[in-house]
Design goal:
Helix content: 25-40%
Number of helices: 5
Strand content: 15-25%
Largest sheet: 4 strands, mixed
Structural class: alpha/beta
Distance between the termini: 33 Å
Order of helices and strands: HEEEHEHEEEEHEH
Shape: globular
Number of strands: 9
Length: 182
């Protein structure tokens, strides 16, 4: 519900299509029972909750045409979750279907210039020309609060989390060619 709230109130103008097999609507938006029933391929998928981040979901997204997913989920490397084997299964399926993965165990991504707040943060980033990238969600939240108090904005606010696929080098390479980032 936090992610849906952030998506709906960030000003993002693209389609928002929640998928949940047990809920008819999320935050007042009609939900779909499975990825295959979506009317179009999402540009970005947000997978919320450890039990939702499965190789089958990644496969379904890839087959639908989605090329990026954020795993806003409990740390899948925790011993009770199967650790590295679960990471590897997710990564194998993502690579098989050309889907890039951010996370797991991350806050998500904010792109204030386009009104995208695909995160679980309780505050939003202001627009600006600085990109912020952090592995740590705790550090990210601290910097976000600090920056808002000082009217400092960001082109991107990215939480990497555990970095099962996308890492800091990938993000720096992308941001180095980004027109919104100075």
């Amino acid at each position: 519900h936090v992610v849906m709230h952030n998506l709906l109130h960030g000003g993002f103008e693209g389609p928002i299509m929640p998928v949940n097999p047990s809920e008819r609507a999320i935050a007042g938006v009609l939900s779909y029972p499975e990825v295959a029933t979506l009317p179009l391929a999402p540009d970005l998928a947000l997978i919320c909750g450890q039990d939702r981040a499965t190789p089958e979901v990644i496969r379904d997204l890839g087959e639908k045409g989605t090329r990026a997913a954020i795993l806003v989920a409990e740390d899948l490397s925790a011993p009770h979750n199967g650790g590295a084997a679960q990471h590897q299964r997710l990564l194998d399926e993502a690579r098989r279907h050309d889907v890039r993965l951010l996370g797991p165990n991350c806050l998500g991504v904010m792109v204030p210039g386009i009104g995208l707040n695909a995160s679980i943060a309780d505050a939003t980033a202001l627009p600006g020309g600085i990109a912020f990238v952090s592995q740590s969600s705790t550090i990210g939240l601290g910097v976000l609060d600090w920056a808002r108090d000082r009217d400092i904005g960001f082109s991107y606010f990215i939480s990497l989390g555990s970095g099962v696929d996308i890492d800091v080098a990938d993000v720096i390479d992308y941001l180095g060619n980004d027109a919104m980032t100075r």
